[in-house]
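Inverse folding, one chain.
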């Protein structure tokens, strides 16, 4: 393929070589990235972009833009049939639009500049697409082998219509987009590839940045992203490009371009089992991928295609799912696995572990059989499965590789994913209880073993990590105001979302009970849910742990309508937390209603119950949860705060009640262990989290929680201000710490230093043993 003269830029159309990152808001990330690569002299097929203003102007000219914006901003029904019907209606509106004459003339002119009746690929390029925090993998439509100006106009309109598909509506909801959506289109000369694939310049499964993961298949690359085949997988060292791992896939057919459109070609057994890329081609791809990463200065997910021996880049974007995950230690995982029956094994494509009821769905028509928290088992998922994926606790497929649609979207949703099992849909029995380990790529029968740590996934959408740590670093938040800014930091999620602070902001300081009495219960739920959704969307798919209301009686009394509060001499240890929920179940139900609403769209939010003192009150509180619709949501983790010393005794019993995690409130625990008011200026010299008695209580909480299979965390400023405490916690094996946003970066460095020191100590000890 030879480059053609650049077309002349016009009102709605621009050649790729005139585009760069600054143009992403108008032409989308896909077109902007291709333009940047073209200007960087990378091998990119020539083409042009139709900007998002063309879509808006066409809708304006047809008089339908305001209708689309109004209906697009309306709340989405969680019912799949309603969503599909609404999407069909919206797409029909767009398909009925005729492009203005001047716009058609500009598109036709740019097409002629590419050559005489050339075959082109027409791909959607949304302004938020292929950004550092969202991939929109497979969400909008693309078309290959489009020939002729009339066919091109039709394909552009279909790309526009895909902005209103059920999967696009669902994805925007999950990612928290509220602005009027728009879409651009990129048109390129068609590469008639005989082999193609995807390259990640960091391992998307583990986040390791010293290697390149390449998947390749014969024919067009849509069979990989669509998960229609199991591709070859190559893992190449970034330094020296040595081949570290090789997995030959299983490809029964290929999609090949033809003069009259793409066609499916069945492969012989010999072709199916033959390695797709030879050594020279593999080296070409690895070097090119490394060069692209070096150009952008961050890990990339790029698509490539070979036409004969010529290598082309047809797309690149930042990797959206790098991060760390909480998981059991290898030895613990091995012991846990030994106690269970392995059902199927495939490629671990989305880290984490989940247990739930298997639902074997052979087609999208079976989608209504999948309930919230069930595990989806399917031959493969396509982009139009997204409304179903959002309900699944984990995803298991017969086909696909680690870069297929199911894997990419599953990782963005924070779901454990196992792909390429070959026979999951025939081996796994519908309705049975299974456990999916997305790290090892294994599906077991039965429940998760207690040796595994059911930690919330700490997947991130960050593009840079200051100091990677095995111990997760979460933040404490109180309001939605700074959510986006904090979420952009190097943090693993929200370890403590204080609900009570939003009462004074979102609700104007009204007492929840007073709002119920005034008939404003729904107002409370709407306002609080909006605040929690704002935070959850900013951090998705990273976990957000919502602590239920824990205002003390003197604080409640200060709210509008708070005169009903009891007058207590010592409210710090009075009518609050879990005990209050037992006495006032309607107050607790408000929190449950809020979380139930939020988790319908954003399943990364989990519940934490504060100030738990005894087993019986926690049992009654959890009984209320189980009686609520939220109680059936098996994907939601149940945490408790460890603030009262009695928790040390009760942890085994709490675990049996179904608790998943324990968050140590170091301030209250120190206060109650030492019998000192943490707010007392007179007694401030007595308040010391590093006191041996306090450390002993923390140690026993961590040890007993780990023995019971519970995740552990500590929320409190002391861990960031005192390196001794950070090192102490890391040595005891705490899963995470949660600190104020302004100290998160410092805490990460403190924790990283502690972890390095521990590794050094272990190395020295091993050396002495050998000597």
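Residues assigned per position:
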């Amino acid at each position: 393929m030879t480059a053609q003269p650049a077309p002349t830029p016009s009102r709605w159309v621009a050649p790729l070589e005139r585009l760069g990152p600054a143009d992403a808001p108008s032409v989308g990330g896909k077109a902007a990235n291709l333009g940047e690569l073209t200007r960087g002299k990378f091998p990119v097929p020539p083409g042009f972009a139709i900007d998002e203003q063309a879509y808006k102007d066409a809708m304006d000219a047809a008089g339908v833009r305001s209708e689309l914006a109004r209906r697009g901003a309306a709340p989405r029904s969680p019912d799949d049939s309603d969503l599909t019907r609404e999407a069909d209606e919206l797409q029909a509106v767009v398909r009925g639009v005729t492009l203005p004459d001047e716009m058609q003339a500009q598109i036709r002119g740019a097409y002629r500049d590419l050559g005489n009746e050339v075959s082109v690929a027409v791909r959607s390029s949304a302004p938020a697409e292929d950004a550092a925090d969202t991939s929109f993998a497979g969400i909008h439509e693309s078309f290959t082998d489009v020939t002729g100006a009339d066919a091109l106009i039709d394909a552009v309109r279909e790309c526009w219509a895909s902005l209103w598909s059920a999967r696009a509506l669902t994805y925007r909801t999950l990612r928290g987009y509220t602005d009027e959506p728009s879409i651009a289109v990129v048109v390129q000369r068609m590469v008639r590839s005989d082999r193609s694939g995807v390259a990640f310049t960091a391992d998307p499964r583990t986040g390791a940045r010293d290697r390149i993961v390449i998947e390749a298949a014969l024919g067009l690359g849509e069979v990989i992203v669509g998960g229609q085949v199991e591709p070859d997988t190559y893992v190449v060292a970034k330094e020296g490009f040595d081949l570290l791992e090789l997995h030959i896939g299983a490809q029964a057919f290929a999609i090949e371009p033809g003069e009259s459109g793409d066609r499916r070609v069945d492969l012989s057994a010999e072709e199916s089992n033959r390695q797709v890329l030879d050594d020279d081609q593999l080296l070409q791809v690895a070097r090119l991928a490394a060069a692209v990463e070096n150009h952008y200065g961050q890990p990339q997910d790029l698509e490539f295609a070979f036409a004969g021996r010529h290598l082309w880049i047809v797309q690149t974007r930042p990797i959206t799912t790098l991060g760390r995950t909480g998981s059991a230690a290898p030895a613990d995982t091995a012991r846990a696995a030994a106690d269970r029956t392995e059902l199927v094994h495939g490629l671990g494509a989305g880290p984490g572990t989940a247990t739930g009821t298997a639902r074997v769905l052979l087609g999208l028509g079976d989608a209504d059989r999948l309930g919230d928290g069930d595990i989806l088992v399917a031959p493969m998922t396509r982009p139009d499965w997204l409304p179903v994926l959002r309900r699944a606790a984990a995803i298991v497929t017969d086909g696909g590789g680690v870069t297929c649609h199911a894997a990419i979207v599953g990782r963005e949703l924070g779901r454990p994913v196992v792909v390429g099992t070959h026979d999951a849909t025939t081996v796994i029995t519908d309705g049975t209880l299974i456990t999916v380990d997305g790290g090892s790529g294994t599906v077991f029968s039965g429940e998760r073993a207690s040796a595994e740590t059911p930690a919330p996934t700490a997947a991130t959408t960050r593009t840079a990590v200051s100091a990677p740590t095995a111990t997760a670093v979460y933040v404490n938040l109180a309001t939605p105001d700074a959510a986006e800014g904090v979420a952009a930091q190097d943090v693993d999620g929200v370890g403590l979302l204080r609900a009570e602070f939003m009462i004074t902001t979102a609700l104007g300081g009204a007492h929840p009970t007073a709002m119920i009495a005034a008939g404003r219960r729904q107002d409370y739920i709407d306002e609080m849910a909006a605040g929690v959704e704002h935070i959850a969307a900013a951090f998705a798919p990273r976990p957000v742990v919502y602590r239920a209301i824990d205002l003390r009686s003197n604080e409640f009394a200060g709210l509008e309508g708070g005169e009903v509060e009891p007058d207590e001499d010592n409210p710090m240890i009075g009518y609050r937390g879990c005990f209050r929920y037992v006495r006032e179940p309607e107050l607790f139900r408000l929190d449950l209603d809020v979380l139930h609403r939020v988790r319908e769209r954003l399943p990364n939010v989990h519940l934490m119950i504060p100030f738990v003192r005894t087993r019986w009150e926690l049992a009654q509180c959890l009984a209320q949860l189980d009686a609520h619709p939220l109680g059936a949501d098996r994907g939601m983790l149940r945490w408790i705060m460890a603030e009262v010393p009695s928790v040390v005794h009760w942890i085994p019993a709490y675990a049996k009640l179904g608790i998943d995690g324990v968050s140590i409130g170091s301030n209250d625990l120190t206060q109650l262990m030492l019998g000192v008011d943490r707010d007392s200026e007179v007694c401030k010299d007595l308040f010391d989290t590093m006191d041996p008695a306090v450390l002993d209580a923390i140690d026993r909480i961590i040890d007993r929680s780990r023995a019971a299979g519970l995740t552990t965390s500590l929320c409190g400023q002391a861990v960031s201000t005192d390196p001794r405490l950070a090192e102490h916690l890391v040595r005891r094996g705490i899963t995470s710490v949660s600190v104020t946003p302004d100290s998160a970066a410092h805490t990460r460095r403190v924790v990283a230093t502690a972890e390095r020191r521990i590794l050094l100590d272990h190395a020295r000890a091993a050396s002495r043993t050998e000597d």
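The radius of gyration is 27 Å. Residues 2-9, 128-137, 323-339, 449-465 have pLDDT under 50 and may be disordered.
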